[in-house]
Amino acid sequence: MTTSTQVNFVSYVQLTSRALPSLTDSKGSLVVVSSLLGRVPTSFSTPYSAAKFALDGFFGSLRRELDVQDVNVAITMCVLGLRDRASAAEAVRGVTRVQAAPGPKAALAVIRGGATRAAGVFYPWRFRLLCLLRRWLPRPRAWFIRQELNVTAAAAA
After folding, report:
1. What distance in Å separates the CA atoms of residue 140 and residue 29, rounded to the nearest whole number?
2. Strand partners, 76
3. Which sign does the torsion angle of CA 104, 61, 115, 129 carry?
4. Residue 111: left if φ>0, alpha if ψ -120 to 50, beta else—which one?
5. How far apart (Å, rounded) are the C-alpha atoms in residues 148 and 33?
6. pTM for the complete prediction?
7. Would you call 48 a catalytic residue per the annotation?
8. Quick one: which of 19, 60, 63 has its CA closest to 38?
9. What is the pLDDT confidence band of residue 103, given thresholds at 50, 70 and 90?
10. Helix (H, G, I), strand (E, B) or coil at 124
11. Residues 104-122 pLDDT 10s
12. 142: number of Cβ within 10 Å
């Protein structure tokens, strides 16, 4: 198992399994911070994307199971884009043309989503549209992704 899978998927499952009894008793909320790369596959991010897709599948299934059992635990799936952290900026320098979103604004979107028990949060909001395009129009989505990617730099990395 890769470190990416351990950090970006398994740790969420372990924490959730331990917290779920208390959350069930208190009618609590889970806030899952994921990534656009867990909804829209792109090049040069396979291990990370796999872990984030797994998050989406696990928590989507858990949401359905809790609903069927009439358990009042909210699950908010937050889909975030590239944030302005130094480590993220360094990892994608020259690979993508996407502008990083301000971290504090992304954090505020996550907090609002959790506080309102929203099923999903997309930050920036345009990612909701991109996720819809993935299902409805796969060719334009692929074109859009290619426009944001510097394949030469990514292949060299």
Report:
1. 36
2. 31
3. positive
4. alpha
5. 23
6. 0.76
7. yes
8. 60
9. confident
10. coil
11. 888 999 999 999 999 999 9
12. 15
Cα–Cα distance for residue pair 38/54, rounded to 1 Å: 8
Residue 58 identity:
F
**Active-site annotation holder among 9, 12, 48, 53:** 48
d(CA 35, CA 83): 10
Nearest to 78 by CA among 108, 45, 44, 99: 108
As given in the structure block, the two tokens for residue 86 are: 């130094």
How many residues are present in the chain? Answer: 157
Give the tens place of pLDDT for each residue, 81-90. 865 555 544 5
Helix (H) / strand (E) element for 80: namely strand 74-80
**pLDDT above 90 covers what percent of the chain?**
46
